[in-house]
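Sequence only, no structure available. Ideas?
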Amino acid sequence: MDPSSGKAGDRTARRRWLGVLAKAAPAALEQAFDALESKPTYRFLRAPAAGAAMVRGRAGGRGQPFNLGEITVARCTVVLDETLIGVGYVKGRNLRHAELTAVFDALLQDAARAPAIEHGVIQPLEAAHHAERKQRQAESAATRVNFFTMVRGS
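Reply:
I predicted one. Tokens follow.
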């Protein structure tokens, strides 16, 4: 999968795996990296660094956009095999998380390595994220209060 080819499907796939990697627990990414049979060699194009990014919102989800505030973001860019460029942007200040996100992004762009990384790393991380989200929704649903209005007399 070469995201630079300009195909919409490639961009969609890359957007998906970057989202999964950014939301993954840093410890899970570290464990996945340690489990790789052959560690990739890479160099930094942009060393891991923390900064701020503006978060924008919309009133009611559809109104005019407005600046909501800033969040801390860690970012990194790596070059793998002198041809594949991986990027990593994660919420917070965890520089290693941004670095590993960039490394896995580059690995997933390599057609030979992508299937193994997809099945061994991305799918389990995505399943873990969905399970955690479902659990949070169930916990919040248990505290939900349904209000209704009764009309007295006519």
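Strands lie at 42-58, 65-80, 84-91.
Hope that gets you unstuck.
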